[in-house]
Amino acid sequence: MTAKPAAAAARATVYGYPRQGRNRELKKAIEGYWKGRVSADALRQTAADLRRATWQQLAEAGVHEVPTGDFSYYDHVLDTSVMVGALPERHRDAVRADALDGYFAMARGTQDVAPLEITKWFDTNYHYLVPELGPDTVFTADSAKQVAEFKEALALGHIPRPVLVGPVTYLLLAKAAPGVAADFEPLTLLDRLLPVYAEVLADLRAAGAEWVQLDEPALVQDRTPAELSATARAYRDLGGHTDRPKLLVASYFGRLGEALPVLAKAPVDGLALDFTETGAGNLDDLAAAGGLPGKRLVAGVVNGRNIWINDYEKSLATLGTLLGLAGQVDVSASCSLLHVPLDAKAERDIDPQIARGLAFAKQKTAEIVVLARGLTAGTDAITAELAANRADLAARASAAITRDPAVRARTAAITDADGRRSHPYAERTAAQRAHLRLPLLPTTTIGSFPQTSELRTARADLRTGRIDEAGYEERIKDEIREVLSFQEKAGIDVLVHGEPERNDMVQYFAEQLTGYLATQHGWVQSYGTRYVRPPVLAGDVSRPEPMTVRWTAYAQSLTDRPVKGMLTGPVTMLAWSFVRDDQPLGETARQVALALRDEVNDLEANGTSVIQVDEPALRETLPPRAADHAGYLEWATESFRLATAGVRPDTQIHTHMCYAEFGDIVQAIDDLDADVISLEAARSHMQVARELAAHGYPREAGPGVYDIHSPRIPSTEEAAALLRKGLEAIPAERLWVNPDCGLKTRGWPETRASLENLVAAARGIRAEL
Ligand code: GLN
Ligand code: ZN
């Protein structure tokens, strides 16, 4: 393969960068601010320092335009709501009183005012705050943050390119504000929103911006003709202003499909497209649309979602093809680097053969720069890099961890019967009722209890050798005893051990399964100041020993009430990890499922009658295009059944999922063949209960009545009101009472009060039935 030198120099750029800083300085500063330990000025200074360090690092690496405005104290979609003045009525006074505190109130809520709803950013593990709009929404431009960050970078000598959530995506991500009819379509506000965007763009132009990037990832999903024509209208309008900067419309996370010709024809100056596996088809579509003559194409050839090194030869081949299709071809990652950790070189404990194959944000930036150089100057200019890349790819492929013949033999021998429980649901539910003897509206929690600083200290002490295994075990057991005794006193029906031994619901298992690698510093933002450290699925998966049995059995030994065993399901074990890209996801899922099946069976054998297998990632992993749903859901539901179908009929299998919109996967949820499901519902006022009912979902369900993403304590009346709403959709015999999700991020005082209120609400309603 050879790439001819490009006519115009190809330039390297990125759409966004991890925000937290090398030592998670931003998280610490923001949480310090919330606790009153850090002043607003100190927080702003930390943020400015981090932005400066990021830009400088990008520029030094050889990035041409640096992104600005992608930085956020909490979430860039919330920042967009601020930018267009779409603040919920209930927060306006707080924002007026103090912009920063008001901002955090919208994100987290206060004791009196509910926050915005939180949901997944496309199929990533990043969460955004859902804009609340209605027919009365009045947009007003507030370009202050964008302009300030642009000027900040400019003053530091960079070429900044402000990055904004595009108007179409912004509206498509929004939902009807409370009190507005649920079928209200935010996209109907487009004509009102466009002048506000035009004003922000003009302000950025006036500040000196040559290019502005408008992110439209919503266009890689299936869009209706009306939505496509709204897109055309939006960019005809924004492109038509004379006082505007050049517009780069960025798409990512997939194939643009029918939106591609729409954007290609729009009077904008450039497009950014995903040319990795997820964007397969973009290249052909672009050629079919006649390319982008005279315009700028930013080619996302470096995968911004995984942590593996790029295959330079493959990328250069793609880039070479693209040269003929646009006036200017620049190189980037497939999406913002927000979704990968900062620096793979910080990892010291990973097998060197695999470590050579790792690329985090910093390495991906370097790859982008090398590829831009190769595209500009020809492959001769990067011979050394190409040779090193080939060697690194080969090292990873031949690493011992990647293939375990025993695992492969086992997945090859899977039969249909392995994925089917011995009895149908209707018979199982009767057996479980007789066995468990639970009251109507049984109360339970989702698994974790507050992860106190004592617990984190205990884990750190174990790591550093200040306490030994036995000492650690004692501390965990103390905690389990406390959690159990609280739950018994509070009157909860199905208890949990509280997951005190778990650092994270995926990492904990990954550390015990072969095939997974842990990182030391691989933090990525989940929401706000919450960061997770996804493990790396690098090889074939198996379970050498039981993982949870001793803790669950210990908890069960302390009580006569049923203690629920807690596992993380196969889809989530994949979704919240960095997955291998050298075999189909379904194959990896089957490997994980069989490992979990061993654990489920061992739990049952050790006296556990209720086992919850969490699959919060089932919905978020759904591919963006409907045409790909069936293929995904087939392996996803199969792997759940493989993990859970080996138990007796009177053993009750629960599953749990977070995040509000389930309407399109109720059939898949049913196909899991679980006995009980708990779902997030408090912020969306039990919407999921109605969705389940609308689809005739026949099983037991616990739509959450306590929003655990906020420190707010729901009152008994509030929980009872939600339960009554739940009862309108789900009959009492099938309704469970539980929080939205695990309590690990909460403090004990609010957890205690909230769960007591929740039990009181359940008892109150039971008495009415
Ligand atoms: N069992 C887990 C917990 O309670 C579930 C967490 C989740 O769904 N995100 O923490
Ligand atoms: Zn959850």
UniProtKB/TrEMBL annotation:
Enzyme class name: transferase
Cobalamin-independent methionine synthase MetE C-terminal/archaeal domain residues: 441-763
Record-listed L-methionine binding positions: I446, G447, S448, E499, D614
Binding site for Zn(2+): H656, C658, E680, C741
Annotated GO MF terms: methyltransferase activity
Coiled-coil spans in chain: none
Name this protein carries in UniProt: 5-methyltetrahydropteroyltriglutamate--homocysteine methyltransferase
Gene source species: Streptomyces badius
Taxonomy of the source species: Bacteria, Bacillati, Actinomycetota, Actinomycetes, Kitasatosporales
